[in-house]
Design brief:
- With about 100 residues, this protein is an alpha+beta fold.
- It has a single domain, classed as 2,3-Dihydroxybiphenyl 1,2-Dioxygenase, domain 1.
- The chain is built from two helices and six strands, in the order αβββαβββ.
- It has a three-stranded mixed beta sheet. The protein has a three-stranded antiparallel beta sheet with strand order 4-5-6, with helices on one face.
- A hairpin with a 5-residue loop joins strand 5 and strand 6.
- The radius of gyration is 14 Å and the shape is flat.
């Protein structure tokens, strides 16, 4: 995830930082905040790991970054391939929910 944020930050001209936050519920599970020096992707600190991947993919899609379909393996691991702005293929995987 850090490689992807670094590549997106390079393309956008400012770094992207991921921050887990205690957001009000009900409410947004995350948000993308653009500042003059950096972009911050804040996500609900109490979101389950399953939602973390989905939330990150949704925010990337909102900024025009597409991904292949998410696969779930028999052991519960979720895997997805994302193309970064430089055309690199990045694999993101998430451990099974407990």
């Amino acid at each position: 995830m850090h490689r992807l944020c670094h590549a997106l930050g390079r393309k956008g001209g400012r770094p992207i930082e991921l921050q887990a936050k205690q957001l009000t519920t009900p409410g947004p599970s995350g948000l993308w905040v653009e500042t003059s020096r950096r972009d911050v992707i804040a996500y609900q600190a109490e979101t389950t790991r399953l939602h973390d991947l989905d939330d990150i993919l949704a925010r990337l899609a909102a900024h025009g970054i597409d991904h292949e379909p998410v696969e779930t393996y028999s052991n519960g691991v979720r895997h997805v391939v994302v193309l970064d702005p430089d055309g690199n293929s990045l694999s993101l995987a998430e451990a099974p929910a407990r």
